[in-house]
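User: tokens in, sequence out, please.
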């Protein structure tokens, strides 16, 4: 997070106690200054799964290719961004949709009961934090809803389930296990079967409770062009096994 820089005080340009006091007050009012106070810049916008709903307002329409039409309400995604949606349970290409200024969108995607979709957005050089959810058909014909994908709330992964290889061919996930139980990462594989991405860290990677570790991933280009795939890792802890998807992106070679 960055912070706005407080404006110049104008005390140096005015003489007199009253002028100085008035000027400082005006400056602080504009800069929100005070003891240890700064004006924060708002957090980056995020995709909002909850804006695809509630079910009574949804529309699912089968398309000729077997897909479904998904409508996002106003505020679902950052206005003016390009939305990228990937069905993590299929090997289809990602589907893209231009988000309207009000944050709404429409797209067609092949998706079936229980499939996990990854919602991501791009705007200029910005790329949003991915959001994952399972597609669930409702009892009423033509209606559906999304259930957020299960994750360990006490497990912190940085960056958030995405690695960008534009700067270097080796990138790392920093994992902090704040849980009361041990976790382990294992069974690495990619959605599209790419051989250019590989996990350098020896698996299984066991992380005790209240400990941290690093998981390294490598990219070795074999052909020109941009690359993107999804790395799947099975995370085991507290008798549960949860699939964690990590977006892997490498730009076209220079």
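Assistant: Sequence out:
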């Amino acid at each position: 997070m960055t912070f706005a820089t407080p404006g110049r005080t104008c005390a140096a340009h005015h003489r007199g106690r009253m002028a100085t006091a008035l000027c400082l007050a005006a400056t602080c009012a504009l800069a929100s200054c005070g003891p240890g106070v700064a004006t924060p810049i708002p957090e980056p916008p995020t995709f909002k799964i909850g804006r695809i709903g509630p079910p009574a307002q949804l529309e699912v329409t089968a398309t000729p290719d077997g897909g479904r039409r998904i409508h996002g309400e106003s505020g679902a995604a950052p206005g003016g961004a390009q939305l990228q949606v990937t069905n993590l349970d299929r090997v289809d290409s990602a589907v893209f949709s231009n988000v309207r200024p009000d944050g709404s969108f429409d797209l067609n995607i092949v998706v079936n009961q229980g499939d996990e979709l990854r919602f991501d957005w791009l705007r200029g050089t910005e790329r949003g934090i991915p959001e994952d959810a399972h597609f669930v058909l409702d009892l009423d014909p033509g209606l559906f809803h999304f259930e957020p994908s299960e994750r360990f709330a006490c497990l912190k992964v940085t960056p958030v389930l995405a690695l960008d290889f534009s700067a270097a061919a080796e990138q790392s996930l920093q994992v902090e296990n704040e849980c009361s139980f041990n976790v382990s990462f294992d069974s690495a594989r990619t959605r599209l079967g790419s051989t250019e991405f590989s996990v350098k860290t020896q698996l299984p990677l066991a992380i005790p409770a209240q400990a941290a570790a690093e998981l390294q991933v490598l990219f070795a280009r074999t052909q020109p062009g941009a690359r993107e795939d999804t790395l799947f890792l099975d995370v085991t802890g507290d008798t549960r096994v949860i699939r964690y998807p990590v977006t892997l992106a490498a730009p076209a070679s220079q």
